[in-house]
Amino acid sequence: MLVGPIETDLTRILSRRQALEGRVIITGPVAKDEVRDYFQISDTFVLPSFQEGISSSLIEAMACSLPAIVSNVGGNPEVVIDRDCGFVIQAGDVDALRAALVTLAKEEESRDAMAQRARDRIEKFFTIENMSRSYVSEYERLLHP
Fold first, then answer.
1. Domain ranges of the chain
2. What is the pLDDT of residues 1-35, one digit of tens each?
3. Which residues are bridge partners to 87 per DSSP?
4. 3 SS3 class
5. In this structure, are residues 44 and 67 in contact, taking their beta carbons and an 8 Å threshold?
6. CATH number 3.40.50.1820 is the correct assignment for the domain at 31-143
7. Model pTM?
8. DSSP secondary structure of 51-102
9. Can you say whether the dihedral through the CA atoms of 75, 2, 88, 67 is positive or negative?
10. How many CB atoms lie within 10 A of CB 98?
């Protein structure tokens, strides 16, 4: 299932649409209040960005106990610990993306363990309270070296 805006040329995907029929659902953008519903019916979250900050959708997905496959851009490697709560792959590496997807699809116990560690990581480091404390601490460090 591809949920949300697709930021790449869909020409190749759409040219194979018939082969994808019945196997892939492309929703396009969804309302903010519908996102959690999609997380709840998913097994894995994939964010193969070429550029990224710290993605709120990544944090939300992991908070919903989804292991993540992300590209190694922006803040993604700070959020996802490779092979612990998901996979961090080289941006644009289709083979690595495929391998990570296959691993998570075939190894249910590993996927479930990563899912729990994803949730634990978000609760420990990425709640609003913890992030706010980190920002304040950093500002204080910069103001009073």
1. 31-143
2. 888 877 666 656 665 666 667 777 878 889 989 99
3. 69
4. strand
5. yes
6. no
7. 0.84
8. S-SS-HHHHHHHHTT--EEEESSTTHHHHPPBTTTEEEE-TT-HHHHHHHHH
9. positive
10. 11
